[in-house]
UniProtKB/TrEMBL annotation:
The name this protein goes by in its record: Uncharacterized protein
Species per Swiss-Prot/TrEMBL record: Streptomonospora nanhaiensis
Length: 71
């Protein structure tokens, strides 16, 4: 059976400062492509994006942050 290829999206909601979010993005990027200087494109095409003001998408995350005294 041949694997079906297509675009898949993985979302990660994180309650963080902008600096913390940028650091997490950097770490995830290094996991996906540990050798950024390799020749040619990555064997599995990917991209990463950082979205600000996504509070409406993660109400339970905000509730948890408030409960823990962070929000």
């Amino acid at each position: 059976m041949e694997a079906e290829h297509g675009v898949r999206e993985i979302r990660l909601g994180v309650y963080a400062t902008e600096e913390q979010a940028e650091e997490l993005k950097r770490r995830i990027t290094r996991l996906l492509c540990p050798d950024p200087d390799h020749a040619g494109p990555c064997p599995v095409p990917w991209s990463v994006a950082l979205l600000a003001d996504a509070e409406d998408a993660y109400p339970e995350l905000l509730e948890q942050a408030r409960a823990e005294g962070r929000g």
